[in-house]
């Protein structure tokens, strides 16, 4: 092969870490195409490509050279990762087994034809989810079904409970990455996992209170409080936990709504009625996909609506991460209403970070955007929103904001618990 492809730093890195991709041994100002591919755990192929020109010395450094087109254009050093698209339609990029890395194949081809040029060089790049020294512990304590990730070192560490949305099951990739930044993180399942209920029909805070108690009693978790991180339905559960349960020091809501949606929220004698929805409000987009953004019932009374979570009872601060192009529901509007409710109850205005061109699934950095996929409840593909370049930049910034927020409010601001910004 005529060229060498190097990825720095050498060796396996974590998925949320940036790398520098350099091609050497090209002719001056040679036209080439870079191609990236990986197969997920279900065998689905993801691919991206971009066209480039080498510099006068025959080198191509993606931190300096803009892409001339392809899956993306412009100066995008990590574009070959965030622009990956599945060959299978409506397929979401997920990592289910964090103990194995994703293997990315990088190829450089002569000319600007992504499938026709002569292969000049290739490299294999491993991107993992368990940083060196991070410990993964299966948790089956009482009713709690989860996985705990502990950072390297003696501890104790600031603790976080991590929740996902209506997909159910147990996803560990975000919790495992957080542990690499110094946080003892519990990836918590709450339905459709092992002996938990198959469907999510009840939002009773007792189960989640048990998970909080488990964390606070753990010798490796630093009290007196813990943090909560959730996306979508998981974000609303986190907001409910912060409102009803003790010892919650900081909460991050990623595209949550702040309302009880299809099921009532109950804790002891308190019960918040569901807002409900009307499936007749589903729209069909130009693409033929379903758009569910307006399915929920109207918020009569604004922040005084009885279906709103009483977030003014939360002891710690709340950070709202919002995609302005979220098509699951109107996250930006919901965050504004939450802010109004907090201020109406004499609380400080919360931090709301809104990202233009950003859809529903705001993931850790460099995850490919999921513009549309199968909705578990409707069993049909729906639009999630977002424009890939803007969405990717939002994910990088949101991750930094989340790490900084937890570092600030969970104490222990030693280097091990501070984000690698």
Explain what this protein looks like in three dimensions.
There is one protein chain. It is globular, with a radius of gyration of 22 Å. The chain has 2 domains: 4-128, Acyl-CoA thioester hydrolase/BAAT N-terminal domain (Immunoglobulin-like); 135-410, Alpha/Beta hydrolase fold, catalytic domain (Rossmann fold). The model is unreliable at 413-417 (pLDDT under 50). The protein is of the alpha/beta class. It has helices at 79-82, 173-179, 205-217, 233-244, 331-344, 388-409, and strands spanning 4-8, 13-14, 20-24, 31-39, 45-53, 60-61, 85-86, 102-110, 119-128, 135-141, 144-150, 157-163, 184-188, 203-204, 221-231, 248-254, 265-267, 270-272, 283-284, 290-291, 318-323, 351-355, 372-375, 380-383. The chain has an 8-stranded mixed sheet with strand order 10-11-13-12-15-16-21-22, sandwiched between helices. It has a 6-stranded mixed sheet with strand order 2-9-8-4-5-7. A 3-stranded antiparallel sheet has the order 1-3-6, with no helix packed on it. The protein contains 6 helices and 24 strands. It starts with a strand and ends in a 12-residue tail after the last helix. Strand 15 (221-231), helix 4 and strand 16 (248-254) form a beta-alpha-beta unit.
| Rg for CA atoms | 22 Å
| Mean pLDDT, all residues | 95
Q: Major sheet: order of its strands?
A: 10-11-13-12-15-16-21-22
Q: State the helical fraction.
A: 10-25%
Give a quick set of tags describing it:
Acyl-CoA thioesterase 4, single chain, 17% helix, 6 helices, fatty acid metabolism, six-stranded mixed β-sheet, Rossmann fold, fatty acyl-CoA hydrolase activity, eight-stranded mixed β-sheet, Immunoglobulin-like, alpha/beta, globular, 421 residues, 2 domains
